[in-house]
Amino acid sequence: MKRVLIISPYFPPSNAADMQRVRMSLPYFKEFGWEAEVVTVAPEYSDMVKDELLLQSLPSSIKIHTVKAFPQKLTSKFGLGSLALRSLWFYKMKVSQLLKQGKFDLVYFSTTQFPVSILGRYWKKKLGVPYVIDMQDPWHSDYYKDKPKSQQPKKYWFSYRLNKYLEPIAMKAVDGLISVSEQYITDLQNRYPNLKNILAATITFGAFEPDNDIALNNAHRFPALLDKQTKNMVYIGRGGADMHKAIKPVFKALAWFVKNNPEVKLKLYFIGTCYAASGSGTATIMPLAVEHGVENYVVEITDRISYYHTLITLQQADALFMPGSDDPKYTASKIYPYLFTGKPLLTIFNSQSPAMKVFELCKAEYAYSYDNTPLLEEKILAFVGLLVNNALERPDYDKNALQQYTALQMTEKQCKLFDKVI
């Protein structure tokens, strides 16, 4: 049995999007010849929302090692708040010890806390263990460089320069790349020609069927967020100005619809739109709703909710909405959980997004692009009209296509790349 040591700073019970691939893959690694152990940062060192139910999805046989991190209260005085930077030293010490003590064939970084990935090169040089990096998002990117300061992430000037310095350190000696988007890999290969000679695979996030059982068995724990007196269309995920191009056509269509149907009982929910600590988030969707005069029909909840609360809320919705980024490389990790709900789904993405191919393959009927769909607002109006008149049929997604995107299938693809790397 080959052995992989997985580096995932966020891990259950922390409810972080970037640990979901690891969490959903752990039950299946052995099936494909790999024994996995995880090294994570102890949860008390992060302010990420905790969801204890996530622990129920983990195989009891998996070894979980924890490391410390410098306290955020201390490091924030120097402008260093990221978990990756705060835990870097502790990772170096702990993993070096583990690699010396046990025979590991591979180190696998699966996280968006990218700075920890520079340690792969160090461990490879010192201990001869190859490493693979999972690019769930771009690491160094020019996307925000020409954006107004109000749209740039906090401390962008610092993170941009830091990422530009650290990324090549990790990429110089990496043995394999996994990414949710083929374009992310292409961009890296153009930036670092040596990467054209290493193994790479585009592997999306999958759907993990046991999660539905956990959610249903604990539904009584979660407060209801939706108004039972209205028809509810729901999106749960991050907000941001980069999604405005996808959301504006919906608000324009909604404004026309409610003007002509003033008695309609309809609400669009945007839940968990900000990564900030609970109660301190900044609304990025409601100002757009106000601009289009539909604020009475839109609810934005910036606080993030737990993963299983999310699944239950999606099941309680009458229809789902998924906006994409204006970045054509963007693909949403939530695609498959949304499709597996079997709910009517309206999606609006950039026409070049890899997500569009998935929607087509799965035969998602209401999948549109904001930049290439003719009569887009009319099509949105038709969807809304069917929704409020109870005429939206349960979608008939292609089951064979969906089965290609289960966590089991995605784990097999990861393991095939691991096998080739070693």
Layout: helices, strands, pairs:
Blueprint: E1 2-7, H1 20-25, E2 34-41, E3 63-67, H2 72-75, H3 83-101, E4 106-110, H4 118-127, E5 131-135, H5 156-171, E6 176-179, H6 182-191, E7 199-202, H7 210-217, E8 231-236, H8 244-260, E9 266-271, H9 286-291, E10 298-301, H10 307-316, E11 319-323, H11 335-340, E12 345-349, H12 355-361, E13 366-369, H13 376-388, H14 399-403, H15 407-421
Parallel strand pairs: 1-2, 1-4, 2-3, 4-5, 5-6, 6-7, 8-9, 8-11, 9-10, 11-12, 12-13
Helix pairs in contact: 4-5, 7-10, 8-13
Q: In CATH terms, what is the architecture of the largest domain?
A: 3-Layer(aba) Sandwich
Q: CATH homologous superfamily name of the largest domain? A: Glycogen Phosphorylase B
Decide which structural class fits the backbone: alpha/beta
How far apart are the first and last residues' alpha carbons, in Å? Answer: 13 Å
Q: Tell me the strand percentage band.
A: 15-25%
Here the CATH topology of the largest domain equals Rossmann fold
**Global Rg:** 22 Å
So how many helices? Answer: 15
Question: Low-confidence parts lasting 5 or more residues at pLDDT below 50?
Answer: none
- Could you spell the SSE succession in H and E letters? EHEEHHEHEHEHEHEHEHEHEHEHEHHH
Protein name: Glycosyl transferase family 4
Keywords: Transferase
InterPro entries: Glyco_trans_4-like_N
GO molecular function, one term: glycosyltransferase activity
